[in-house]
Amino acid sequence: MLLVTGATGFVGQDLQQELCTRGTAFRAASRSNRHGYSPVGDINGATDWCAALSGIEIVIHLAATNQNVVAGSGEDRALLRTVNVEGTVNLARQAAASGVRRFVFLSTIKVHGERTAEGHPFRQDDVPNPVSGYAVSKLEAERSLIALSGSSGMEIVIIRAPLVYGRDVGGSFRALTKLVKSGIPLPLGSIRNRRSMVYVENLSDLILSAALHPAAAGQILLAGDEEAVSTPELVRRLAAATGCPARLLPCPTLALRGLAAIAGKTELVSRLTDWLEVDITPTRTLLDWTPPFDMGQALKRCF
């Protein structure tokens, strides 16, 4: 049986649907007391996972905390460490003690950094270079899990994912979709970048491959759709999927960044202008895995 933490979150809900479709036995954990879920309370270094772990062979740990980039909320690094590091390590230790065979940890591509150079996508063996508190906390958790695996023998699988999108997703993807639907001309026509993303159903499929495939044990897997797209191309595809016209205006990237700095939206605009490509070839080869949906199919399923 599998245990899914963060089961009420965006990825967790989709993963539950996929597990039900496949007829795979699982238990879903939640911070709060909800019908059909195993309640665990707040996630930190003292959380008691005993009841949730009973009879579990594989743990899929999705639960985490992050900042809201769209709202411009600052990072609470203490909270990030409490949940993402101490909470993860505490769960993993209890899992190992209870006989769990494999622990799948959803991390972030931002462990490698905030951007890539043109033509140089991130690879799983790149030297980590986390910038945000969220990425720093995820990398610390990764390293702690690897160390625990060495001492306990529990298999660890780490998945580093870029931006996840899908129906009802929040964050920067939702914000961009709303702008496209509004019909407001967007000054994004001059951007020449490429960014990798991953459709939530593709990610769920990869997570289950990571949980079940023998070759995944001890591996760091990079997630992503098959293709990376530029921001203007993403706007065009969103417009086509939602039946709206794509209204793109040319604007020099430097000018766009300057306006973002004035408005206090530097990080948000960086996500629209920077390169961030991911090389998923090693993941595909190792697991004989192909994302089930291309971006065109995925966007049609979103709207």
Number of domains: 1
Rg over alpha carbons: 19 Å
- CATH architecture call: 3-Layer(aba) Sandwich
Task: State the helicity in percent bands.
Answer: 40-55%
List the secondary-structure elements in sequence, H or E: EHEEHEHEHEEHEHEHHHHH
Q: How large is the share of residues in beta strands?
A: 5-15%
The neighbouring-strand order within the major sheet is: 3-2-1-4-5-6-9
Query: Structural class of the helix and strand makeup?
Result: alpha/beta
Estimate the global geometry from the Cα principal axes.
globular
Q: Major sheet: size, sense and barrel closure?
A: 7 strands, parallel
**CATH fold name, please?**
Rossmann fold
Q: Count every helix, treating DSSP H or I runs of 4 or more residues as helices.
A: 11
Q: How many DSSP E strands?
A: 9
Q: Provide the residue-averaged pLDDT.
A: 94
Query: What separation lies between the terminal Cα atoms?
Result: 33 Å
Low-confidence residue ranges: none
CATH homologous superfamily heading: NAD(P)-binding Rossmann-like Domain
Q: Look at the structure and give the CATH class.
A: Alpha Beta
